[in-house]
Amino acid sequence: MHQPARPNALPACDEPLRNAIVADLARPRKIHDYAEPVVTLVVAIRLMAAAMQGNCDPLVELTRRLGSITAAKAVLDLAKAGSQAWPENVMVNRPCCHALSPDEAVLADMASAVLAGDRQQFAAVLEGLVRRERHERLYGAAAAVMAELA
User: Fold this and answer.
1) Residue 117: its pLDDT value, please?
2) CB 132: neighbour CB atoms within 10 A?
3) How many Å apart are CA 63 and CA 87, to the nearest integer?
4) DSSP codes joined into one string, the chain
5) CA angle, 128 then 92 then 60, to 5°
6) Does pTM surpass 0.70?
7) pLDDT truncated to tens, each residue of the chain (150 aa)?
8) CB of 85 within 8 A of CB of 137?
9) Of 81, 84, 87, nearest in space to 141 by CA
10) By C-alpha distance, which of 142, 71, 147 is closest to 111?
11) Class of residue 24 by CB neighbours under 10 A (exposed 0-12, middle 13-18, buried 19+)
12) Which of 140, 107, 126, 118 is nearest to 40 (CA)?
């Protein structure tokens, strides 16, 4: 039977490699695998989501937790830029959880690339998830927040 072409499908690979890829995808990444400013950003995003869910002002909550209204505003600006660029609602875990959601892992990788000053790595993190014309705005927002948190 003839199978239709699937241009976006992963290339064929041997079974051990395929199993390794699936196992890697099934294993959640941990928050403590990242630098302290990246961890602070992920926790801040989680706290922002919890504040919004509890009908609290996220700016007030983040300012209290981060100790800086400028840092809190930068986190909110990144969240706004991300919500406008992301293809769907961003999923975050509870603030106490050590595992990263897939969206948090992308955010952490974005922040790590910004800390390293590596725009190519930043673009590679977002490739296939966010349209390229939205990368620059996200990079600017991520750079601003990382400058405040680092």
Assistant:
1) 95
2) 9
3) 28
4) -PPPP-TTSPPP--HHHHHHHHHHHHSPPBGGGS-HHHHHHHHHHHHHHHHHHTT--HHHHHHHHHS-HHHHHHHHHHHHHHHHHSSSPPP---TT-SBPPHHHHHHHHHHHHHHHT-HHHHHHHHTTTS-GGGHHHHHHHHHHHHHHH-
5) 120
6) yes
7) 555 555 555 556 677 877 777 777 778 889 999 999 999 999 999 999 999 999 999 999 999 999 999 999 999 999 999 999 988 888 999 988 999 998 999 999 999 999 999 999 999 999 988 999 999 999 999 999 999 998
8) yes
9) 81
10) 142
11) exposed
12) 107
Dihedral pair phi/psi, residue 30, rounded to 5°: -105, 145
d(C-alpha 97, C-alpha 104), whole Å: 12
Query: Which amino acid makes up residue 144?
Result: A
Beta bridge partners of 30: 99
